[in-house]
Automatic annotation (TrEMBL):
Ion transport listed as a keyword: no
Protein name, as recorded: GNAT family N-acetyltransferase
Lineage: Bacteria, Bacillati, Actinomycetota, Actinomycetes, Kitasatosporales
Every N-acetyltransferase domain range: 11-174
Domain of life: Bacteria
UniProt xrefs under PROSITE patterns: GNAT
Length: 183
């Protein structure tokens, strides 16, 4: 698996690892189940998903799943949640990448999700995405607030392939590209 870490000094993103499974299970609550997974996780299901994530990293697949690790005092390297990027998603246009995230309860309300979205968006730009998309169910005000704080703009509503209604938030990624910073 790739050794990749993205950090802003408060949050570090690194690929999910098999040893993260227990912390993920312990951190899952009703909100994560409702907005992200659609059902409570099992140890077997999480282990299988984390294996899939590792395989996707190894194959440069369309899924890039990161652990959000809190680097603040008292939480150095602690798994605080997850964020993933999905390239080539059926509901998206070429050049777009879907961003999905979730924090475990003790880490919410600290700005970590916004930081993680910015770090992940920068990574998406570096690997070729032109625009990031966050799709949020209308009742999920906390996730919509993260999208707005991370500079995403509302872009309408649409149903996904399963019939679920989402508010779409978009952000161009040109400013995240190394050439935009003069590198």
């Amino acid at each position: 698996m790739r050794e990749l870490e993205l950090s802003d000094g408060v949050v570090t993103l690194s690929p999910l690892r098999p040893e993260d499974a227990a912390a993920h299970l312990a951190g899952e609550d009703d909100e994560l189940v409702r907005w992200l997974s659609g059902g409570p996780s099992t140890p077997e299901g999480v282990a299988a998903y984390f294996r899939q994530c590792r395989e996707q990293w190894e194959a440069d697949g369309p899924l890039r799943a990161f652990g959000i690790r809190a680097d603040e005092e008292g939480g150095n390297g602690v798994l605080a949640g997850t964020i993933d990027l999905r390239f080539g998603h059926a509901d998206l246009a070429p050049g777009q990448v879907n961003v999905a995230y979730g924090l475990y309860p003790p880490w919410r309300g600290r700005g970590l999700a916004t930081r993680a979205v910015l770090l992940a968006s920068g990574y998406g730009a570096r690997v070729g995405a032109r625009e990031a998309v966050i799709r949020v169910e209308p009742e999920n005000a906390a996730s919509a607030a993260v999208a707005r704080r991370a500079g995403f703009r509302p872009a309408g509503r649409a149903r996904d392939g399963h019939g679920t209604l989402h508010d779409w938030y978009l952000r161009g990624l040109d400013l995240f590209r190394p050439e935009a910073a003069g590198e």
